[in-house]
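ok here's DUF1206 domain-containing protein:
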Amino acid sequence: MSANSPGNVRQEAVHRIQSATASVDAGSSSAFEICGRLGYATKGLVYLVVGGLAAAAAWGASGQTTGSEGAIQTLGQQPFGYILLWVVAIGLAAYSIWRLVEAFYNGENYSSHTSTLKRVGYVVSAVIYGALAWKAAPFSASSPQSGSGGDSKQSAAAWVMSLTGGEWIVAAVGATIIGYGLYLIYKGATDKFTDKYNSAQMSETEQKVARYSGRIGLPARGVTFGVIGVFVIIAAMSLDPNKIKGTGEALDVLASQPYGMWVLLAVALGLACYGIFCFVQARYRSFAT
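and the structure:
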């Protein structure tokens, strides 16, 4: 068969198409990995600020108990705050994109049942961090520099409660949040997060930092989710969406307990550790799409 025969021409065409497709897939995978790493790094910065402010408040210094939005507002008030807000907005938008990639491409090859649950969780995460990215952007009407913007959590809950049986939907959301908080505590306590790392690239010290930041940070975040979930259920049962609270109010509740200063300090340091955990994810996490 000659080199220019129809069979050879077809085989060469198929080979070129396959090579081109592989190149596109590799390029897309690389782009999505960049989104993931940038997103985790930005998320780590936000949680370091959240934990640092709460720890300062517990210690009696000039700090405050706040959540992600308050942390972003604090960053916006710093020198070069305008630039910091752009960095945070782009980073959180990248994280939102990565979560959508996980949701729709099943990059980590979960079983079908587990995949469905995780996909839904990833979509929810993408929406939350996408909205947070929009609020951080200096051009947004709800940007920390604009001084405006309402509380979307209460507004959304009020709309759901206006539906038939809406209070049960909100209560189910609260129970799900509590369940996720318990899962984070379990995940941290059992080192379920370490299998995501490229351990071969890590020194012994880096592996220890990765392990202990997850062991401390994940349960601390799980505790705050648990308190937030309780608030959501209370709001549903009382038909009062204004009782839905965020991370800052959850930290206030912890501070109001016996030995509250020490409880708040422990959780605050844990949230700062979660920020370090996110930095470790940004550097050493294995991204498969």
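+1. Confidence is low (pLDDT under 50) at residues 13-27.
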